Amino acid sequence: MPIYLDNNATTPLEPEVREVMLRYFDLEYGNAGSRTHEFGSRANKAVQLAREQIATLAGTDPSEVIFTSGATEANNLAILGLADHGRRTGRQHLVTTAIEHKAVLEPMRVLECQGFELTIVGVGKSGRVLTEDVLAAVRDDTLLISVMHANNETGILQPIGEIARGLKDHTAYFHVDAVQGFGKDLEGPRHARIDMLSVSAHKLFGPKGVGALIARRRGYERPPLKPLMFGGGQERTLRPGTLPVPLIAGFGAAATIAMRDHLLRRNACITERQIALKEFEPLKPILIGDQSHALGHVLSLGFMGVDSEALMLALRDEVAISNGSACTSTRREASHVLTAMGLDPETIESIIRLSWSHLQPPTPWRELAKAIRGLKILV
Question: So what's the pLDDT on residue 379?
Fold first, then answer.
């Protein structure tokens, strides 16, 4: 198998998480909504435990964790679910950034087509939005501000804590797509002024197919969300449907392990990063974004004269890498993130994303650098 360097797309399953999941697949397979027997009771207890585990990592209350099929659904619920409240209150202005995931940008565009006004805040070559630019875009009639925690293509952390503090005296709701940084940067998403937080298990060494929207109370009031689906009443009526207990239990276990092993994982990934940068240095790579704010397990970089598609094709039997978001990789188009950062087309065509994890053996960075050097010579 090739060396896996695409952990921003999805992570492998932590062995401890797999053990937890198998228990609820094979032995305690009850429906969490079945209240008349022990199987249902145990399934419900597993869901409540997972809610507590995820809430602990997020620094919130378990009752504020709403399970979804993933972060895309959570983002849609956070954005589209506020629309009725915005219409009723006359607050129909939205703020987001040009580097958000399409699971945020596209629901925002849907509301724009329905009469809402949308302000998209730009970024520079740092790949990091300026707090003052976001706050300057906020108006009295702003309903929602949505800024991601860490960018999925560049790995650059955004100043969500600073933005949260700046919104202290404003009534607008603040949503954070925390998929890439949840459990890796612990402090940012825990700020109490962040009203809603979208998270996903499969970026946290948990299973695919489960995520959550964390909807924090302000005082005693929850965000005034309306459901996008109906039937069943689960998850406070906001997300009906039978709960996938094995996936939820796995998500909870992954959250607990992320909290427990945070420093060990972080140090292992930073060590890999340092070795990679040292081996790539003779190739004079172009590093994308402000590296002082980059997650430790991600490198977004380019090698001038080497097309990223050609590089991935030449090395596909040796290494699994990407040149953008996995959610849009089925169509070849310039990255909206790199374009928003003001990079020229030639540079954009050269960019690849490398993302590794603590679960894999050390990457042979020197051999990878030699292979890239060979492609540069050929070009």
Answer: 46
Q: Are 238 and 70 in contact (CB under 8 A)?
A: no
Residue 310 burial (C-beta neighbours within 10 Å; 0-12, 13-18, 19+): middle
Domain that holds residue 310: 3-11+262-378
Predicted TM-score (pTM) above 0.90: yes
113 is known as an active-site residue: no
One domain, residues 112 and 202:
yes
Amino acid identity at 354: L
| Mean pLDDT for back-to-back runs of 10 residues, the chain (379 residues) | 95 98 96 95 97 98 98 98 98 98 98 98 97 98 98 98 97 98 95 97 98 96 96 92 97 98 97 97 96 97 91 92 67 86 94 96 94 73
285 and 352 together in one domain: yes
Same domain, 280 and 240: no
Which residue in the list 327, 334, 378, 379 is annotated as catalytic?
327
- For the chain, what's the residue count? 379
Burial class (CB in 10 A: 0-12, 13-18, 19+), 171: exposed
How many CA within 13 A on the CB side of residue 30?
Answer: 17
Q: What is the 3-state secondary structure (H, E, C) of 178-242?
A: CCCCCCCCCCHHHCCCCCEEEEEHHHCCCCCCCEEEEECCECCECCCCCCCCCCCCCHHHCCCCC
Q: In this structure, are 139 and 249 located in the same domain?
A: yes
Total structural domains within the chain: 2
Closest Cα partner for 327 from 46, 106, 33, 139? 106
Residue 232's pLDDT is: 87
Decide which of 259, 275, 292 is a domain's last residue. Answer: 259
Tokens standing for 336? Answer: 């909206």
